[in-house]
Structure formats: structure tokens, C-alpha cells
Design brief:
The protein has 176 residues and is an all-alpha fold. Helices cover 65% and strands 0% of the residues. The chain is built from 7 helices and no strands. α1 runs antiparallel to α4 and α4 packs antiparallel against α5. The termini are far apart.
Length: 176
């Protein structure tokens, strides 16, 4: 009788963070996103009135941005408050977990990353960018599309790049 040994394929080893330069960039960017969610999305998500003389510094900063570049943001439509609240109180948690997963090379973050990127592009990017860039005057489109895109474009472009990065299982076993 011949004994056969079952061979099981072992998954490739994860690369150290130092050998994953794109992940280092994602780590930095999503850390910045944590801060900007707190600065901007929490103000809108909580429905705080953006007035220039507010004692709240975050409200003052948001007022400057909204007053100069984003009248829709200043108008507090309920749907935008829900989107901003989701960012401030749900996506920000994902950003923290994603940063830890990138550092520790937790491959299980691949599926949550795909879900997050798809959600933020579809549920945030399409309605906000659609209204801001293509809406009728009553929709309060931005008076300065270039500045609007400079402030808000990264929140669509970076998740799209993350979606591409996480397109295959075991993302931390490869550079890209």
C-alpha cells in the first residue's frame, strides 16, 4: 500500500509594508480622511448651522468653504446630512480599521474595501457631484467647479484607486 500525502497549496506570503509603496500612500491618505471627516462631515452630519461667528472653529472653517465654494453644503438638505453623517460616523470607522489592516497586512479587508469604495462612489459621488456640477440653479451648484473638485475629488478618486488595488484576493501579497 502506497501512502500518498495530500499537498495543500500555501498562500503566498504577505509583503512587508515597506515593499508596498501604494499601501503606504493609502495609509497616509486615509489617515488624512479621518481628520477631514471630523472637520467637515461631522459638522454637516450633525446639522450644525454654518455661521461665520460660531464659537466652534470647525463650523467657522466649514462656513468659509460653503460660503465661498459650496452653497449646497451650506443649505443643509436632509439627503446631504445623511451622506455626511454616514461619512462622519461610519466611513471614519472603516478608515481606522483600513489603516490598521494595511499596517498589519490583513487580507480580509479586501471585501470590505470593495464594498466601501462602491458605496462611496455610488451613494456619495454620483448624487453630490451630479448636483454640484450639473444641477439646475435651484439645486445650488458650486460657483467654482475647480475648487469644488480640488476639495472633493480625492474622496472619489482615492476610493476608486482602492477598488482597483483590492480587485483580487490577498491584496497584501502583491505590490499593486
Amino acid at each position: 500500500m502506497t501512502a500518498t500525502t495530500a499537498t495543500t497549496a500555501t498562500p503566498p506570503a504577505n509583503l512587508p509594508l515597506a515593499k508596498r509603496p501604494y499601501d503606504i500612500a493609502f495609509l497616509v491618505i486615509f489617515t488624512v480622511f479621518i481628520v477631514t471627516c471630523i472637520i467637515s462631515d461631522s459638522v454637516e452630519g450633525l446639522g450644525l448651522d454654518m455661521v461665520p461667528n460660531s464659537p466652534n472653529l470647525l463650523v467657522q472653517w466649514n462656513y468659509w468653504y460653503a460660503h465661498n465654494f459650496d452653497p449646497l453644503y451650506a443649505s443643509h438638505p436632509t439627503w446631504l446630512r445623511f451622506i455626511s453623517g454616514t461619512s462622519a460616523f461610519a466611513y471614519v470607522v472603516f478608515y481606522v480599521v483600513l489603516d490598521i489592516a494595511i499596517i498589519r497586512a490583513w487580507n480580509w479587508i479586501q471585501l470590505p474595501s470593495v464594498i466601501y469604495a462602491t458605496m462611496i462612489i455610488a451613494l456619495t459621488g454620483i448624487p453630490i457631484f451630479g448636483v454640484e456640477l450639473f444641477g439646475a440653479p435651484a439645486d445650488l451648484p458650486t460657483p467654482n467647479p475647480a475648487v469644488f473638485l480640488a476639495f472633493n475629488g480625492p474622496y472619489i478618486v482615492i476610493p476608486l484607486l482602492l477598488l482597483i488595488r483590492m480587485r483580487k484576493p490577498l491584496p497584501f501579497t502583491r505590490v499593486w
